[in-house]
Amino acid sequence: MAIAVDVPRQYAQLFIGGSWIAPHSGRMISSIDPASEEVWALVAEADEVDVDRAVAAAREALRGPWARLTPTARGALLHKLGALITRDARTLAEIESRDNGKPLRDTIGEMQRAADWLTFYAGAADKIYGETIPYKPDAHAFTRREPVGVVGAILPWNSPMSLYAWKLGPALACGCTVVLKPAELTPVSAMELAKLVTEAGFPPGVVNVVPGYGHIAGAAIAAHPNVNKITFTGEHRTAQEIMKSAAVNLKRISFECGGKSPHIIFADADLDRAATVATHGAFRSTGQSCSLGSRLFVQRAVYDVVVDMLVQRAGRIRVGMPLDPTTHIGPQTSAVQLDKTNRYIQLGKDEGYRLLLGGKRPAGFERGYFVEPTIFGEVDNRSRLAQEEIFGPVLSVIPFDSEAEAVAMANDVVYGLVAGLWTRDIGRAHRVAAQLESGLVSVNTYRPVHWMLPYGGYKMSGIGRENGFDAVNEYLETKTVVIDYAEAPPPDPFAD
Ligand code: NAD
Hints:
The chain is α/β, with parallel strands linked by helices and 496 residues long. The protein contains 16 helices and 20 strands.
């Protein structure tokens, strides 16, 4: 189905307690199409009052019909939601491409992956058990795995629908209820998701969707005394703010933050494969990915060869309109992000690094937040270009001599989300993987993100893990119950 572009789409109400409700302030968020720079959708904006309503609805649902469903029935609802996303994948992908600027070939894949994630956690819902613990005779000790409660899910703009599934899957499988705040830049697919939540048959209040600004709706969720847990994806500075607010009632937290991921190519690697994967790993999603391999370390003996391969491959990337099926990468999602990327490109030029490719607005794009894939060579690992998350298509290539030097430079950064290395030496693969300070290390591949694989950061890249069964544990409390059935009376410590 083609999407009409002349009149902005309207989502005038928030999704709270299973109903569509006008926002308290009456305000709307203008969502801008990053390819045309025009407002393409208007979305109801939640404030503190709306967040309060949504939290109340989520708390009510926690005690209501949702609590009485069997885990298998909860799983069936998640399954249904996944199937509905698959059914509507094409339309949802077009909407996401308009809102976020990602090309259709990516957003179609993201919809399918969102469904896959929900399906995985649908299967997990009735496989969450406690333990019996034989800690002494004449007692039955066991643990119950109980839902942590109301979850505030605060999301970024770079991969909206996938990340909703990363949060909703485990949270709902565990029996939690959710107040979901999409990013103000990309709120539209969350509104479509809310419609599918209703169609799937989730009881009212299990999922609530409150688009809004971070400092208003986001801050209200983080500080709300009836929210038990925050699951957040975004910048570490925002995570720090949320952590302070969450202290009010010692909320449980899991944070997925940024990265400046090292990708290391040793001289003995299959250079052809490494260069192909490294190019994709650096420029996918127009560089707007937390797991970007944006610091590429190349062993000096093969540095020039690899640089040539990178420039050749990155030079073939088709920058284009998001809805064009032949486009490889679209615009940046916002003017602010484009400006940030351009400032780092200028910094690289000012600091005298070798500009090997790109560095400007692509020809033929007068409007839209477009920028060319850009490669700087011989970058100093301590420079701001190599240390700070740009979130744009800018790759720093850094030469190294020894294995020890590569590991030291890879770890010399505040982040620790993803790392990759290419070698044919099995000993080195293990040695380096063990030493990298990173939540995910890939050898002879890059960033294998999958619903079965735990994902999350060391250091400033986050707290907790998403995906796999590790994510399930993030949404549970363990209650220990001890039943003493000894016939003999207990000794009385106060008897004498
Ligand atoms: P951001 O931190 O600016 O915003 C993320 C969310 O937080 C938004 O919904 C925003 O409205 C909200 N927010 C902002 N201020 C808030 C406050 N004071 N209190 C509560 N909520 C607040 O991040 P972004 O620019 O949307 O996303 C880009 C960042 O996300 C990058 O750093 C990227 O690396 C990271 N990211 C990480 C992962 C991961 O899995 N590790 C995945 C995607 C993106």
